[in-house]
Amino acid sequence: MKESLHIYFNIKNSSDIHDFLKIAAEKKNVDHSFVEWIREKGVPRLNNIDFNNLPNDDRFLAMIEFDEFILQNEMDFKEPEEVRGCIISMVNCFQEYINICTT
């Protein structure tokens, strides 16, 4: 996801998501609505996940790998909005994947 965000926003490097958001917000001619989504919805959703206690379940890994496969196939950036959609979907579904595999 980090690599795709860097390419999407034409950012060479960032130390973390907060540095990335700062750099992206300062750029002209970027998808500012996507920057705001990341700041207002994406980061808070990811912050609510306990990454030290993820399910040890083959289904969970399969769902994450499938999302990664889809994102990698969009990395040609022929349609940048597809990359944006993949990232939003991954962030939105992550907690659902956890819930499915812990019930």
Report on the structure:
The protein has 103 residues and is an all-alpha fold. The chain has one domain. The chain is 70% helix and 0% strand. The chain is built from five helices and no strands. It has helices spanning 2-8, 17-26, 32-47, 58-73, 80-102. Helix 2 (17-26) packs antiparallel against helix 3, helix 3 (32-47) runs parallel beside helix 5 (80-102) and helix 4 (58-73) runs antiparallel to helix 5. The longest helix has 23 residues, at 80-102. The chain is globular. The model has no long low-confidence stretch (mean pLDDT 92).
Task: Provide tags for this entry.
mainly alpha; 103 residues; globular; 70% helix
- Residue share in helices? 55-70%
SSE topology string: HHHHH
What structural class do you assign from the helix and strand content? mainly alpha
Low-confidence stretches: none
Tell me, what's the shape?
globular
Portion of residues in beta strands equals: under 5%
Major beta-sheet overview:
none
Whole-angstrom Rg: 14 Å
Query: Helical element count?
Result: 5
What is the residue-averaged pLDDT? Answer: 92
Care to count the β-strands?
A: 0
Give the secondary structure arrangement, pairings included.
Layout: H1 2-8, H2 17-26, H3 32-47, H4 58-73, H5 80-102
Helix pairs in contact: 2-3, 3-5, 4-5
Concise summary:
The chain contains 5 helices and no strands.
